Amino acid sequence: RTNQTSIDRFFQTL
Amino acid sequence: MFEARLVQSSIFKKVLEAIKELLNEATFDCSDSGIQLQAMDSSHVSLVSLNLRSDGFDQYRCDRNLSMGINLASMTKIMKCAGNDDIMTMKAQDNADSVTFMFESPNQEKMSDYEMKLMNLDQEHLGIPETDYSCVIKLPSAEFARICRDLSQFGESVVISCTKEGVKFSAAGDIGSANIKLAQTANVDKEDEAVSIEMQEKVSLTFACRYLNYFTKATPLSPQVCLSMSAEVPLVVEYKIGEIGHIRYYLAPKIEE
Q: Searching chain A, which residue's CA lies closest to the CA of residue B254?
């Protein structure tokens, strides 16, 4: 199964 | 003092249409360089990044940086009061807790103004690194909207696979499966109708249909859309906004766990 990743995982919070 | 005048208020109406289903509220950051907005949807699956350059406005003045927290449903109500051909001016004082929208009819016989309260929003800003993407696909925006709409009937996910030959969109579910292949257009008279692919490496990624369909609300902004993909990073869906800027949507991929 594919799971939805979260966008926070790819971009760092400034 | 902040003041931005746009002869074509329809551009702003379309921008709002392009974000209001994905976001409930957002902060419009106004500076000397223009108006920017960055916001994640409530599930943190996607990110919207809007850039309207000051030189794209007919008049623009921003003496001090200003962050306007705006409820998008309220803004939609106000923008509905503008005629498509109206000239729009947004105005706010420094440190204001409200923003005023002024609409002038083209013959200047009708003038209206609407004041909207601003909100204090906690906003998280994400740093988006400059990336060289493995595949950059440009295609007609209406075609992309059609593909997303058609494939969402088959399943919750769309697989986008890009090779030098073309790009394939696939979906599968209870009723069966669907595949749509687009080849790079050979001879194009009309640039807007072209499909072009720049590929360094083949990529195949899976995305949620629901979000792609939200992004296609930006279709009226531009005849072309640009999709950028690299393995295991978010997809970028970009629509140019005339000579004034762009809207970019970033969508986190679905990954096999």
A: A4
Residue B126: closest C-alpha in chain A: A13
Q: Point out the residue among A1, A5, A13 whose CB comes nearest to the CB of B252.
A: A5
Distance separating alpha carbons of residues B72 and B102, to the nearest angstrom = 17
pLDDT 10s digits, B23-50:
999 999 999 999 999 999 999 999 999 9
Report ipTM for this prediction: 0.95
Whether A5 sits inside 8 A of B253 (CB atoms) is: yes
3-state class of B179 per DSSP?
strand
The CA distance from B203 to B157, in Å, is: 16
Q: Is B18 helix (H, G, I), strand (E, B) or coil?
A: helix
Rounded to 5 degrees, what are φ and ψ at B153?
-75, -20
| B73 closest CA partner among B119, B104, B31, B138 | B119
Task: Spell out the residues 6+ positions from residue B183 whose beta carbon is closer than 8 angstroms to its own.
Answer: B165, B166, B195
Say yes or no for a CB contact (<8 Å) between B127 and A11: yes
CA pair distance B196, B8, nearest whole angstrom: 30
With contact defined as beta carbons under 8 Å apart, do B171 and B238 qualify?
A: no
C-alpha separations of B222 from B11, B243, B251 in Å: 10, 11, 19
pLDDT digits (tens, 9 = 90+) for B89-123: 999 998 889 999 999 999 989 999 999 999 988 87
